[in-house]
């Protein structure tokens, strides 16, 4: 029990052990279990030993979800994962992207795996099941035809040791390889740009030059795109500024026109001021009129009003005789005396 607990703790802090490097053996009597018994639960020192196998090339989330289902089939389970070698895989299925050492190591770092069995058999034999004390085999329920058999898990199903899991749609190793093959040029150019040589990529000299030229074209397109985006941003900012300026100009124009009309309009302050100044100027330029009636000055009763004289030119002729001349002089002297 302590060893089992220790191994479970190790799976959370260290890679899962290989089967041929561990002494983990089920110490309790290994009696055959039914699926119903396993689902009810087993003693802590008797976990249900579940086996799942596969190629696990390009380990992905579909693989991890299948192993999660296998691990959680029963309340107390111990998951063993068998990984087939390169020789078996290339013989019965085809070439792999990852070699067997890489595939083994990928499984060791999956959190649901308790133990990894290297060089697992393509078809499960009773001897293999007994050696690893396997209670149940977990796999998807689709018949797996290979190695001359319609379903390599047929005998496991007939023995009542098969527990089905569900495939994850939309993700598989074949799907990933198909994406790479479909977009081969894209990934070849990508790796050339990252420093891989044409020889490492198995790319011809002509294709290498074509890919590098296409990379330069893509860079130029990206620069043009960035310039266009920056230009659009600049134009948008200018439009916003222009809109604000036009709005402010309209407000100032309305304010200016209102002030102008208020000052120079028909009833404006300028007109009133002009009229006031005009009236003042007229008053300053025009002489004051004399009063119509002036007070009468009192006269002395002893004096009579001065006679009015009309100064008209008189034609004088020389006196005709000395007697006439003396008479004229005497008359003028009398007139002076009367005036006094």
From TrEMBL:
InterPro entries: CCT, Cyt_trans-like, Pcy1-like, Rossmann-like_a/b/a_fold. Residues 290-310, 322-333 have a biased composition (Low complexity). The keyword Transferase applies. Its EC number is 2.7.7.15. It is an enzyme of class 2 (transferase). Residues 210-237 form a coiled coil. It catalyses: phosphocholine + CTP + H(+) = CDP-choline + diphosphate. Residues 280-340 are annotated as: Disordered. The keyword Lipid biosynthesis applies. Signal peptide: none annotated. Residues 51-179 form the Cytidyltransferase-like domain. Transmembrane segments: none annotated. One of its GO terms (molecular function) is choline-phosphate cytidylyltransferase activity. Pathway: Phospholipid metabolism; phosphatidylcholine biosynthesis; phosphatidylcholine from phosphocholine: step 1/2; Lipid metabolism. NCBIfam families: cyt_tran_rel (TIGR00125). Catalyzes the key rate-limiting step in the CDP-choline pathway for phosphatidylcholine biosynthesis. Belongs to the cytidylyltransferase family. This is choline-phosphate cytidylyltransferase. The lineage of its organism: Eukaryota, Metazoa, Chordata, Craniata, Vertebrata.
């Amino acid at each position: 029990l302590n060893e089992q607990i220790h191994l479970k703790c190790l799976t959370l802090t260290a890679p899962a052990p290989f089967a041929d490097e561990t002494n983990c053996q089920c110490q309790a009597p290994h009696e055959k279990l039914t699926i119903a018994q396993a689902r009810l639960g087993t003693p802590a020192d008797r976990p249900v030993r579940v086996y799942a196998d596969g190629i696990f090339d390009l380990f992905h989330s579909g693989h991890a979800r299948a192993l999660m289902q296998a691990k959680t089939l029963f309340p107390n389970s111990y998951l063993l994962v068998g990984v087939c070698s390169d020789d078996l895989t290339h013989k019965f299925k085809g070439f792999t992207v990852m070699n067997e050492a890489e595939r083994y190591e990928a499984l060791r770092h999956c959190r649901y795996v308790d133990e990894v069995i290297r060089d697992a058999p393509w078809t499960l034999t009773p001897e293999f099941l007994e050696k690893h004390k396997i209670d149940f085999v977990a796999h998807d329920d689709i018949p797996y035809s290979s190695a001359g058999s319609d379903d390599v898990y047929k005998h496991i199903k007939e023995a009542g040791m098969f527990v089905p899991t569900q495939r994850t749609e939309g993700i598989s190793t074949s799907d990933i390889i198909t994406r790479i093959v479909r977009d081969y040029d894209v990934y070849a150019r990508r790796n050339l740009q990252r420093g891989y040589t044409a020889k490492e990529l198995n790319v011809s000299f002509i294709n290498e030059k074509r890919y590098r030229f296409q990379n330069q074209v893509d860079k130029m397109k990206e620069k043009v795109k960035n310039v266009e985006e920056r230009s659009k941003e600049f134009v948008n900012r200018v439009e916003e500024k222009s809109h604000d300026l036009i709005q402010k100009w309209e407000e100032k124009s309305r304010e200016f026109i209102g002030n102008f009309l208020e000052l120079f309009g028909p009833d404006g302050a300028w007109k009133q001021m002009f009229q006031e100044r005009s009236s003042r100027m007229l008053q300053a330029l025009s002489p004051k009129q004399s009063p119509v009636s002036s007070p009468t000055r009192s006269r002395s009763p002893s004096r009579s009003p001065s006679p009015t004289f009309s100064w008209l030119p008189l034609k004088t002729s020389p006196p005709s005789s000395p007697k006439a001349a003396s008479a004229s002089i005497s008359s003028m002297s009398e007139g002076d005396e009367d005036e006094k």
